[in-house]
Specification:
This protein is an alpha/beta fold and 257 residues long. It contains 9 helices and 6 strands; from the N terminus they run αβααβαβαβααββαα. The structure holds 3-methylbut-3-enyl trihydrogen diphosphate (2 copies) and magnesium ion.
């Protein structure tokens, strides 16, 4: 049976996050310059977005450019920013056809004005779509986000809009850039690295992690299906015992009269 058919549609993760890594190594292996790997990576983005939309996943967050990536050589940064604009323009029709809403998390203002303009246009055009929400993490890092949120909280307290005792996990989370999204149930990282690289540190507190040695440009729909299936075979315990989890599941399954 195909992997896709083994996926239980009732138990899909609501939010999948992906650290798309390995473009440079893919290019080097083929004897190309790094930028070729980024170009090829766009195809893997397309396949992953399609796979998520087809399954009916609600949120897909893709780590496309980190705060730390600004320290890469200028020509590589320029190429990535150009690719971003190109990809958005090429994919607009398909985003609309597939009812996909585009959003962004990260320090948008740090992006070149042209990238900002194109992104805002695409976000506006797709804003009423009701299918998959595709979240691009651009100029994003989790520590940046957490510090920015602390700043907002302090401002609200200083203005008298919030009392210090009202600061808790829920109010804090509601002020992060991911405010209206559920936490990811599944995080995929490609390229065989076992690290988080400053991505969604707050939000992945109880996320299932999936690592694959596949380099991002080689990532396919089938690989995505494999990750979902792997996730579905895990037991998420949230600090409870296995017996407690089974009890909760059993009460959920009881028919209600
Ligand atoms: C991921 O691939 C893309 C970005 C970080 C923008 P890399 O460019 O990090 O590729 P490797 O890790 O050097 O192979
Ligand atoms: C993480 O990949 C960032 C993105 C995928 C955009 P990096 O290649 O920047 O991470 P490190 O350097 O391997 O930790
Ligand atoms: Mg990398």
């Amino acid at each position: 049976m195909e992997i896709k058919e083994q996926i239980n549609r009732e138990k899909l993760p609501g939010h999948v996050a992906v650290i798309m890594d390995g473009n440079g190594r893919w290019a080097r292996k083929q004897g190309f310059v790094r930028v070729k790997g980024h170009e090829k990576g766009v195809g893997a983005v397309k396949a992953t977005v399609e796979a998520a939309a087809e399954l009916g996943i609600r949120y897909l967050t893709l780590f496309a450019f980190s705060t730390e990536n600004w320290n890469r050589p200028k020509y590589e940064i320029d190429a990535l920013m150009k690719l971003l604009v190109q990809a958005i323009n090429n994919e607009m029709e398909s985003l609309m056809e597939n009812n996909i809403r585009l959003t962004v998390i990260g320090d948008l203002q740090a992006l070149p004005p042209k990238s900002q303009r194109e992104l805002l246009k695409a976000i506006g055009t797709t804003s009423n779509n009701t299918g998959l929400t595709l979240v691009l993490a651009l100029s994003y890092s989790s520590r940046w986000e957490i510090v920015e949120t602390c700043r907002k909280v302090v401002e609200e307290v200083q203005k008298g809009n919030m009392k210090p005792e009202e600061i808790d996990v829920h109010s804090f989370a509601s002020m992060l850039t991911t405010t209206d999204m559920p936490d990811p149930e599944l995080l995929i990282r490609t390229s065989g690295e076992y690290r988080i690289s400053n991505f969604l540190l707050w939000q992945i507190a109880y996320t299932e992690l999936y690592f694959t040695s596949t380099l991002w440009p080689d990532f396919t729909k089938e690989e995505f299906h494999k990750a979902i299936l792997d996730y579905q075979n895990r037991e998420r315990r949230f600090g409870l015992t296995s017996e407690q989890i089974n009890q909760v599941e059993a009460t959920k399954k009881k028919p209600t009269k």
